[in-house]
Design a protein that fits this description.
homodimer; alpha+beta; 2 domains; 9-stranded mixed β-sheet; 5-stranded antiparallel β-sheet; 23% strand
Chain lengths: 408, 408
Amino acid sequence: MSAARVVSRLLELNAVSDDPAGLKRLTLSSAHKRAVELVSGWMRAGGLDTRLDPTGTLVGRLESQRTGAAKTLLIGSHIDSVRNGGMFDGPLGVVIAIEALDQLRARGVALPFAVEVLAFGDEEGVRFPTSLTGSRAAAGTFDPASLDTRDAAGVSRREALVAFGCDPDLIGAEARDPASTLGYVEVHIEQGPVLEQRDLALGLVTAINGASRGEIFIKGEAGHSGTVPMAMRRDAAAAAAEIILAVEEVGKGTPDLAATVGRMEVPNGAVNVVPGAARLSLDVRSPSDADRAEALTRIRARIAEIAGRRGVAADVSISYDMPAAPCDPWLMDAFERALVAQGHAPFRLPSGAGHDAMSFRGRIPQSMLFVRCRGGISHRPDEFASQADIAAALSVLEAFLESLGANP
Amino acid sequence: MSAARVVSRLLELNAVSDDPAGLKRLTLSSAHKRAVELVSGWMRAGGLDTRLDPTGTLVGRLESQRTGAAKTLLIGSHIDSVRNGGMFDGPLGVVIAIEALDQLRARGVALPFAVEVLAFGDEEGVRFPTSLTGSRAAAGTFDPASLDTRDAAGVSRREALVAFGCDPDLIGAEARDPASTLGYVEVHIEQGPVLEQRDLALGLVTAINGASRGEIFIKGEAGHSGTVPMAMRRDAAAAAAEIILAVEEVGKGTPDLAATVGRMEVPNGAVNVVPGAARLSLDVRSPSDADRAEALTRIRARIAEIAGRRGVAADVSISYDMPAAPCDPWLMDAFERALVAQGHAPFRLPSGAGHDAMSFRGRIPQSMLFVRCRGGISHRPDEFASQADIAAALSVLEAFLESLGANP
């Protein structure tokens, strides 16, 4: 019955959209406001005290039912969406947290710590150039400069927050005290195909991968495709092709590393012109920052070798560099106990996508539980997680909370 | 002195442009009309009878100075240009032919055949979707459908011809009788780097390469660059990269074959998305139609192997297929005798670019003499052939005409 209520609530929330043709719930939008009201009602029905924090995060707090308990566990995810998004990415983690607490209350379990359910509203990063402001405020790493960033309509985040009923000047006070915070946990769909391929409902996240992104520009020499003999060419596209395969090989050569060329192009290319230039994107991710740095070093070396041999110039520029956020061993062990107790394999995997949990890196211990999703698909209307898998996640989350209560 | 006059005339002709910023002499344009008038004057000064044929080709005829001669040798090239083109591509072959005949006349050489200098005006194919109409009319393979093709302004070729002073209904009568035509010869800059690399002023063309052009479309599966492990990917760009290298390898594996991927793209590609599709262009050229067919077969086989191994779909569509136009052995031998007599190595090479000469394939014997150009560059204002190399070509053309006169 309880997993059924989670699914029912997810469906209800899915209808809260600023686009009748598909789910669109951008941060600090009208749909976001209505979603906050809807979820607030569920929180209050579950006995949580609710408030809207100064970043637009809905906070539902449940005090400990035991005396003398001082610490607080944070459980969260986000209720904003991409354009034409799916109903599970984010809301699942919020709705399942409310449900787990309600189930424990119904079973008379008194936790020796307070719990705050955090419904963040700024995870997808679609409206403003910055994102994760809610979780960064809670972690104490909020950057005030993000208040001055603007959306496509010219509205600043500060203006949007004020219109949402928030006072941006109070954001600093949201920073949780690590000494009194047990940790942050998040349930989320995997957004990848690994659990489905292994026939597992659930997986324990080891780290949110660090990522490097950049561009590779190759300069060769353009020529007539009919008149320049093969042996006299300095073909930028052929060099780019070798580089794409080198990036793939480096990616395959290290466990849990992903290396991707997502864009490739020959500027002003034509069927009858030997390419004089080529441009590639590069995306390298790993749960290990050392592995990622090593992969970048190997990719640069391979590119230099290929460019030298082919007589072309190749320039690699890395424009984005985010360290990995390892999950906390103590929280992971508690999840593992819960998984095993509920009859699941304690399968571990890294998260290739970013999440609010990574905002807590180096500040507050965090851990994530992944739920299998069909085909690894997310950010699309056909995003899907089964009620059976949601029921499994709910049972594990309840067992995790009880386990943590027994070993606080 | 005579090569100096060729260069001087080329410079004069280069100033006949519809764009003051660079050479622009599209077919049947105002600049083309003025070029016809200028070249007509040079032809008449050289004793040639001139007329404008119904396709806009300027024809200068010199009757044989010997009695009883019935056959005619055609010598030609084109006086139209691309946008922002160079001064040698086309005009060199026309101006040098006029000069060679004038030199022979000055030396009292009486050729035992008539000569027609053909200044074609439709080689570059920039204005209309069809091209080579002048040489095809002379060869007897003119396609009347080309009269209904239109330029970007909506003007049909028929309308443009009438405005140019031509009567399109008379084009059929331009077909030369193979029985009374000795052949067609053309002097042209190489438009490639081979002669320069070998330190040769001149080269004898073996064939105008046949060409196949088309597209390769690869369909894989898009995915999140962070969440889809390397081993589970069906990356269309990585498959495309292998295909690019396979095309290059096939090109390198056969003498005189060129195989080029000039365009490559990932439709809707993004830095953080594993490419679900990729599109490549394909251009394969060879003086041997059998080699070209064999190369296409090998490329298709390699693509099928790569696609099968990577679990992607790959479709090859060939949209253009032009057979090679082999040069005539008897005319080539005459050019070779002339080259050797003038102290040149009789170096042979195929033509990777198309020329009016290829219109005569299977109808009238043809042969071409290539002149070294700096850096293999053409279709640009910095296109360049030296006066010394032009002098060499002029001497060889004169010797060729005398040799042909001695062995008609």
